[in-house]
Amino acid sequence: MPARSTWLSYPDAPRIRVPPPGPKSRKLLAAQARWETDAIGYPHYFPIAPASAQGSTLEDVDGNRYIDWVAGISVLNLGHRHPRVVAAMQAQSERIWHTLELPTETRVEFLEELVASLPGTLRNRARIFFTVTGGDAIETAVNLADFAQGRRGTVAFSGAYHGVHGGVVGLTSGRRYRATSSFGGATVVRVPYPDPYRPVLGADEGAAGTIAYLEHLVNDPSSGVDAISSVVVEPILGEGGYVVPPDDFLPQLREFCDRHGILLIADEVQTGLGRTGRMWAVEHSGVTPDLLCIAKSIGGGIPVSMVAYRADLVKELPRGFHIGTYRGNPLALAAGTEVLKVLKEGDLLERTRRRGAALVERFRGFSRGHPAIGDVRGKGFMIGVEFVRDPATRAAWGERAKAMRSALFARGVLMHTAGAWDQVLRFMAPLTIEDELLERGLTAFEDALESLDAAPSPRAVRPGAAAIGAIPRVPTSPGMPAPVVPPVPGRTFPDAETSTPGSDGVSRRS
What we know:
The chain has 510 residues and is of the alpha/beta class. The protein is 30% helix and 13% strand. 49% of the residues are buried.
């Protein structure tokens, strides 16, 4: 076991000193509720006020420490405040913060580092288009594809999440996201994503049904589809529930696009930068997209995004094709260069593949004693645990997944939901998380399961219990705090001065 002096994280997490939310958090949450829009969501799920963060852990203003299995929704693949990223940003902060599109040494170094890391034939042959957010990158990629093709029409999949601002909201599948938007977006053709657990077009037998349906849309003059310029796809569904498609899906999709002169856009906003155990998730299938959308972890927590596209895709783009004042921010690019270097060096990606496979087996081990877990799937540190009311009918059980989120929160572990019914808990911890923190989080996960299960099975040694590595099992602390999350956390807190804080909880393992 590595010496704790080498840890990037707080070594004593999870540590619950006051049942969350504590009095200081309640005060800040109340102030936020007074001034900030009701549209924000995360204070409802994790009602705390963060004070500091380190590695794969976070401390709130009340002194509670949490194991962070959210990582800013895969924004912090290297964790909070990675020392090399911090040093790169500090050095850049002493030089220049904002440059519009003017070249700097930092900008060019980032470009060279990025293009050398791209998958397949994009490597060292791509052009880069800077954007600001993930949704901005997707919208730019679709516009670029339509410009190159001279036609419009984009295939997007059920369960897709590609952003919610501007026209890109039309590519996102969830009705709840489109209901608040006044932008209709471009022409979008929706096709079921091949989901082996919930097949619509025979995904349990591979991707043949999905590809046959796409062929129908293109070839049948009565299909109702006039033209298709591009297909935009997540190699693994993110917000859609961490769905891993059949192995033949991306290769067959690439062949379909090539047969019909359609451009393939890979949305690697959440799957990229080592999240699945490869630099890019498309590398698992050996597929090279025509355009690759990059965001989230590339900035180490600073907003920046980009599109990498085939250099021969267009001869020339009009000046000002897609503009934005904050594109290619120097601080973010300095961080991004260091993120890429850290991911390329050492064995971090291989460790993520190996540890991710072991984690899948550990979560599957829990399902054997808890039938509410209907499916476990994933690659690397992108793992989904789906909850169902009945394993036979596979009826989604969002309430149980959200109850698990609250129970884990009370135990000092942050884990978030996904899926159409919020029925999937998704593991997306930083790739740098220490093995011992993984083990403590798994112990809390099992304890939360048993606390919610009407008929908990007796604790036993589960298959794969030693699979993460040579890590001693951490015994469950007595008196594990019960969930105390308010019915509507984040919006119903009285000021701390007028409320009675809860008694001190048990100090968790150190």
